[in-house]
Amino acid sequence: MARSSTVRDSHAIRTVDRPRERLVAQGAEALADAELIALVLRTGTAAQPAIELARQLLARPSGLRGLSRALPAELRTEPGVGDAKAAALVASFEIGRRVAGHRLQPGDAIRSAADVHRHFYPQLRDAPRERFLVLLLDGRHRVIRPVVASEGTLTASLVHPREVFAPALKEPAAAIVLVHNHPSGDPTPSREDREVTARLGAAGELLGIPVLDHVVVAEQGFVSLREEGDLPPPPRRPELPVREP
User: Fold this and answer.
1) CA-CA distance, 233 to 227, in Å (whole number)?
2) Domains of the chain, start order
């Protein structure tokens, strides 16, 4: 009787500690966060199995969400996590963000700030640092491509007009939309955001490449600085970026 109980307990332990088999038998949705992370890690260490290493990582501040925001250099400071494991984790979270997002494709028309938000929200909502991007558009306000102009600190991103307009002049683009994130989660524009918008808007007028909008993306939503009155009315062209009701 005791032996039978021991066998059952041993089987239960093996089942719990084998997330790959559970995934095949029950589906990925049946796995706990630690089991999914263990599958990404693939192996643990001599002293710690993969599932325990996964639990260690999830004990970081903000749990799974915090882990998804971590940079490779941060992950490598965790005991048992080297370059390969850090890269695998960062790549897996990036894949998830791309699948979740509405990816703008070259030729897609930008009709509203909401279009911009839908595209950039998955990749910017959890970014640990501020990123400033420029969305290059053709004469009908269709997407050419996005360009990263600057990566800043947690509180500010310094942007110079040459980093913003050099790609636009090279393409050449007929107009641009500015996009950046607030790692704090609050999309409310800062004084610096408004100053940068005014400076780049004026530069765009001189170069003949209008800044149609500046969209601040954050966990709690987004703000269009054109709708806030920080940019002049855009030129009358087809498919202007105005928020849909």
Assistant:
1) 9
2) 2-99 (no CATH), 103-224 (3.40.140.10)
